[in-house]
Write a structure and sequence with these properties.
This protein is an all-alpha fold. It has a domain at 264-376. Helices cover 84% and strands 0% of the residues. It contains 15 helices and no strands. The longest helix has 55 residues, at 119-173. The protein is globular and about 85 Å long. The two termini are 46 Å apart.
């Protein structure tokens, strides 16, 4: 019995290697990472982050199931994805744009399909007018915009002289009110001394530079073959990709759903459903609001006989998708046109009245009815997401900014809910119970 009771000495060596095995495994991992790090550093000029990601996945395979493995792989995958967006954003733009269009139009196609339309016919009926409108805007709108900008440039010298006369009349009217930090006489002299020819050449050069920067910023490339290929991608590839993505949208979603591990499928599908509901309500509501506000602004300026009313209305519709910031951006061209018009004060008053009515209706009636407070996506969060996405990833960043912001917002809300229902948050009450 005593010999059987002396079994602990035999179990202790087994426990010793077990404890030492964990330490030995950590030492092995540290050695492997150290050697691998030196090796990869020596090949740093030949490796890309994409290759490094798969090297990390292969190295971490023996550690599957450990607590930090999944988190580490997810972080590495996100960083690699950001690098891919930053490097090949101009190539991915047609694909991302097609995916956004497919997401927006799929519910409408489903409704038409429910009314005994074939899915392919419903896609063509819905997409063709949209693509036709975009093509017409590119073919007809851009040349018209160029002509109007050229006309504004040609009118600039006389408009500045009129502006100087108006400023002088304002100075005489408010002779006793000196503007701080401004020498009124010097400013008026500079306005009158501007050479018309020099001013026109300066504005034309600046306008060409602005167009080039907008072109490269939107497309992600400069001039030449890359730009031509990107334009071809937008014009030809995007409609084709949109058609096939909408046609197979439900099947793609179902296949992605089946790829989720069964143990986590319910939680992931629940999160995805909430995400889809929040994003779709925000996007469709905000786009509808922007179109209505742009139409009201265009009609108001047209009734007031303001120059380029429908062009400014289109700019308002585009920029109003971005809360708050869109108002400021759309005001800039309207104020410029007002300053270059004959009667500056009357033109500025027209802009103030029309914009005030449009924004008042948007804030008090249109947005509450269409978007509502149930979306819960704060405008400041949207503006921040668009600014960060556009700064780092250009046009593709602008496309994915709001979807990413919605996902982060929903993840934070779910995380807070789990925290508030956890033992850590209610530890005191749980302990007393």
């Amino acid at each position: 019995m005593s010999s059987e009771g002396s079994t602990p000495p035999s179990s202790k060596p087994a426990g010793g290697p077990g404890d030492g095995g964990g330490v030995w495994r950590i030492a092995q991992a540290a050695t492997v990472f150290l050697v691998l790090g030196f090796f990869l550093y020596s090949l740093r000029d030949l490796l890309s982050p994409f290759v490094l990601f798969w090297v990390l996945v292969a190295v971490l395979l023996p550690f599957r199931g450990t607590p930090g493995h999944t988190l580490f792989v997810v972080i590495a995958a996100l960083l690699t994805g950001f690098w891919i967006l930053d490097t090949t954003g101009f190539l991915l733009a047609p694909f991302v744009l097609a995916l956004v269009l497919a997401y927006v139009f799929d519910p409408l196609v489903d409704r038409m399909q429910g009314r005994r339309f074939r899915r392919s016919v419903a896609i063509v009926v819905l997409i063709l007018p949209v693509l036709g409108g975009l093509a017409a805007a590119l073919v007809l709108g851009l040349p018209a915009l160029g002509e109007q900008v050229g006309e504004l440039i040609r009118k600039a010298p006389s408009a500045l002289r009129d502006l100087a006369d108006w400023a002088e009349s304002m100075q005489e009217r408010f002779a006793g009110a000196d503007l701080p930090f401004v020498d009124e006489e010097e400013a008026l002299d500079r306005l009158r001394m501007l050479s018309s020819a020099d001013l026109v050449s300066l504005l034309e050069a600046r306008w060409q530079e602005i167009v080039r920067r907008i072109w490269s910023g939107v497309l992600g490339v400069g001039r030449g073959l890359g730009s031509a290929l990107t334009v071809a991608g937008y014009v030809i590839l995007t409609p084709v990709l949109t058609f096939y993505l909408i046609r197979d949208y439900d099947g793609i979603v179902e296949r992605l759903r089946n790829l989720i591990p069964r143990g986590k499928r319910e939680a992931v599908v629940s999160f995805a459903s909430a995400y889809d509901d929040l994003l779709s309500r925000y996007l469709r509501g905000q786009i509808t609001v922007a179109l209505i506000v742009g139409t009201i602004t265009a009609l108001g300026l047209w009734i007031a006989r303001f120059p380029y009313a429908f062009l400014i209305g289109a700019i308002v519709a585009v920029f109003s998708v971005v809360p708050y910031l869109g108002l400021l951006l759309s005001l800039i061209p309207a104020v410029i046109v007002a300053l270059l018009s004959g009667d500056v004060l009357a033109s500025l008053l027209k802009v103030a009245v029309v914009y005030g009515i449009a924004q008042g209706l948007e804030g008090s009636l249109i947005s509450p009815k269409i978007v509502g407070d149930s979306v819960g996506l704060h405008p400041v969060w949207v503006v921040l997401a668009l600014a960060v996405g556009g700064f780092f990833f250009g046009f593709v960043g602008l496309l994915i900014a709001v979807p990413v912001a919605v996902g982060v917002k929903l993840a934070v809300v779910r995380g807070l809910e789990r925290y508030e229902s956890s033992e850590l948050y209610g530890g005191a009450s749980a302990g007393t119970g």
